[in-house]
Amino acid sequence: MVPFRVVRDDETGEALLEVSLSGPLLLDYPLLNKGSAFTDDERREFGLLGLLPPHVSSIDEQMARIYENYNSKQTDLEKYIFLVALQDRNETLFYRMLEDHITEMMPIIYTPVVGAASQHYSHIYRRPRGLYISYPHREEIDRILDNAPYRDIDVIVVTDGERILGLGDLGVGGMGIPVGKLSLYSVCAGIYPAATLPIFLDVGTDNQSLLNDPLYLGWRHERMRGREYDDFIDAFVGSVKRKFPGVLLQWEDFSRNNARRLLDRYKDELCTFNDDIQGTGAVTLAGLLAAVKAIGSRMSEHRVLIFGAGSAGTGVADQTVSAMKGEGLSVEEARTRIWMIDVGGLLHAGRKDLESFNAMYAQPIERLQGWKVERPDYIPLEDVVRNVRPTILIGTAAQPGAFTKEIVTEMASHVERPIIFPLSNPTSKSEAVPSAVISWTGGRALVATGSPFPSVHYKGNLVRIGQCNNVYIFPGVGLGVLGAGARRVTDEMFLVAARALSEMSPALRDSRASLFPALEDAREVSRAVAVEVGLEAQRAGLARQSSREELEQRIKKRMWLPRYLKYRLRQ
Description:
The chain contains 23 helices and 17 strands. It is of the alpha/beta class and 571 residues long.
């Protein structure tokens, strides 16, 4: 039984918590623990007298103490460990800290520092959070889900750890990603922490250094693949449908071979989406829509070159096609404006090694006639830039430094305002450094990145670099789906989310401003995105019809704030 419930005071009508825990058990329950902020009356009622220092702190005093300790940490990884420990001790204070310092702390709890934390997961592990479902326990998944700490789950984020950011197979270390994503759901969209559940599916790892590590906490076995893997995933989804009907299931950091396939397999069975595909595509499209509007053009007028044809790259391509279709092009016409590159070079119809999820973006071989290339069997980035003359260049291949000075200057020689998005995470995997791109293009480029970068000083001007961060999309999409009571998640929901976000771009008012809003505005962004997503769900017949005003009120009511409530003992 959950040891608390929200009720209303009979006399004042204010919200308060009825809590059944007391003494040390209450102090050890992170979602209920107030630490030194328990009042004298609460200390008497809940058996806490003498268990805490006598001074009753306000949350602001606690914040000052925590922030002082946070700043004493010498490395970003130490700061990450400190914040995770705070989350495991006092979740309300953790989220209030993130709320007040979101720009400073988001890179710590998520990209890029979460990448390093995931790499060192087995060495910095302190306390479990979420559920670990390993392949040897495949017959007991229902039982494992029954062990979830809370029953009323709204959102699950799940990974199998095979493609963590641009770092590859990190095995059980991938659990840092669902934990981090769900923290962002709570801080940016107000999803109540008790309604979230991170899950790691442990199907082994092919990372030999992990298998050789005596401290590795995961299942020591090479990765399961093929039929065995698919049956395990199917058993997991079946259990989720039984135990948490109506839940929103988000797939995170699955390999390129599985991400699209699993999404297509289950998207009509439950409320689900893949953030690497749909979230990345939508947030990138929002940046592109803002950029083309800022320079007075339309998406359908541009030539788009995407370096990286995996989950993220094809997600960006799909959303771009949808936007161009909305401007009057056919799907086929839109695809002719998108050029993609993978490890085998340019995707074209003459290649026999393309995969089902990106083959639709292979250019007809006839379009390559007259090209000057060194190797017809492998057409690299520099050759494509020279021949296509793209107006938009996007990187999702996790190849650091791939956007060289020669490539960027070649592109800029044909485009008045080149749009360049090196999106790979973490920072060490970025295809280019914004300061270099600004310099190489004479300050003309519009730049957004996947990881946070500082503003660029160029010839007396300060150019702000927007972070093309999925946090502007997935929390709002989730909030909209839940607020509207949508039965499924559709691609159109991500398209309207992208459009809503693009309209909030500061660059529409100032050409030197960021293409994306400040992180301090994340809750307002999520609310705006949620409303448009909810309305789209109603248009698609996937949610109960209501007025815009009613939907807005339902969404607002769902947004939890990290504030201490008054407690009373639950008999």
